[in-house]
Amino acid sequence: MKTIVLIGAGMMGTALTLPAAANGNRIRVVGTPLDREIIEHAKKTHRQKTMDRKLPDENEYYQIEALDEALEGADFVISGVSSFGVDWLLNEALPHVPQDTPILSVTKGLVDDAEGRLETIPAYLERNIGRPLNICAIGGPCTAYELADLRQSCVTFCGKDMATLEMMREAMQTGYYHISLSTDVTGVECAVAMKNAYALAVTSAVGALEAQEGEGCKEAYNPQAGIFGQAVREMSRMLRLLGGKPENIMLAAGDLYVTVYGGRTRRLGILLGRGLSIADALAQLSGVTLESVSIATRTVRALRIRAARGEIDPADFPILMHIGDVLDGKCSLHMPWESFR
Amino acid sequence: MKTIVLIGAGMMGTALTLPAAANGNRIRVVGTPLDREIIEHAKKTHRQKTMDRKLPDENEYYQIEALDEALEGADFVISGVSSFGVDWLLNEALPHVPQDTPILSVTKGLVDDAEGRLETIPAYLERNIGRPLNICAIGGPCTAYELADLRQSCVTFCGKDMATLEMMREAMQTGYYHISLSTDVTGVECAVAMKNAYALAVTSAVGALEAQEGEGCKEAYNPQAGIFGQAVREMSRMLRLLGGKPENIMLAAGDLYVTVYGGRTRRLGILLGRGLSIADALAQLSGVTLESVSIATRTVRALRIRAARGEIDPADFPILMHIGDVLDGKCSLHMPWESFR
User: With the C-alpha atoms ordered B86, B89, B95, B98, is the resulting torsion angle positive or negative?
Assistant: First the structure.
């Protein structure tokens, strides 16, 4: 039995408490300052408010002020913050975590800088905290809702230290939560991040057909599959560019597959495919947090800097560069079929 | 303007006459002995009977006895026979085709032998006809129905001779039919063949959920995506094993995506996922030609021979080997989640 402290009571983090509790671990959930209501609701109802799903009865809940108390005796920490919460985690929460306590991060994304570098979240956190951090991360196709519904899910835990990864897998693996291990943090995290722009592209084919034949028309899969194939080609190139292992393309492909059918990114992709500008599409989706837009924008921003320096050929990434232009409001979406190669 | 002779009036072959005719080529469609009714119907109605879709008004139709007449002045031949018709093509039709007339084959599949070799259809035809054959083939995610509906479709023409491929592309490319070219025949054809077993596996997740929650329940995508990712991993290994270029994994991924949503293979995968034996599932689908079952069975048969000789580790292909057992009637389908690696 391990003592696991989850920081951040969002959907994915709390969904992870289900396999963790199934293995008899002690779970302490600490909300961020934005999670106050979620924590109060969970204390009373044992449900996660945002996704309205049952959580383990054994979970203990803490507001952020009790972080130090919750961390006492922790075997490892799960960070459940979204990419928007990374700097809060870095500055407000991580300093409370003892140096030798391993961390498992669910945060998806890459951080870009003015030089066009793209850094994984674990690397970004370790560089900025200024001390060694035994940080691992989760990749692979797994949406929070379906994990909370105990659906068969395959993920990859990645990190520098295989012994830590094995300890975490033993704590978390169940008959429906299947965990592979990898020390290729760059490969796994790139795969996870890149799928965002491409999921917008694949789902835009649904909207493009609706623009021709009316909403609710029968779906067509040749166009989606054509974009899916080109997406895998471009994601393979990105993986190589950023130094990830080529075989992790399978994570990107699986993650793209699940995201095409996921809620928010799919809805945005369909609206863009219908010909809406990004501004109009986001207005229709008001109130929805679009992490995918932020991640896609950062990735393209970095690629543009590298392209300007002649380090990459943007023609190798026709979908990604076009989605970047669409997200910047430069044009509406017109799939560049003739540029696929 | 080219003169293009299509041999075999099945769905995919006749769907190809739409982009071909759009470019002003002269199209002659010659039915196999099994296509008599399709040809008569098309002569009268300009529609393909099996898929009930409109064909170009300019198409000319011939019964098989008029093959030599139809071949007169042909710039290239498209073979539209299914994998079940390959030996008919080899023995009855190809001897009529002049040696220097290039052929474009739509037939999907690999041919296995007692030594566990897997050969592409172009290689099989050339080896058996006993003379050089300028044969190209089509890969990539494109279903006949959607091509006939003029949906955006991305395919790859592969062959030994780039000049021939370019001539064919020029004849066939349109604003919705996008053609990449490749000289990696093995890679393209393997990608196309392998996706069959894996499409059964991905769609089985739909049936497995229905077995728990009832038919028509809400779909879950974590399980499908987990299998999809492992499928990409296994297909990459197969590509390497058979000597295809690794980058053609994008064709396999795109083709798998479209097949998951295609009609017949999806229906079989769902039935197997519900727990039906292959015999019971095929009984429910009576009358349906299941090329995918035949292709998957051949691939697994070859792998088993290689595994018995210690040339491959079957544990590298847990999904494929299990699907092989299911198709042989040895067991019902239980996804080997724990063996994914």
Answer: negative
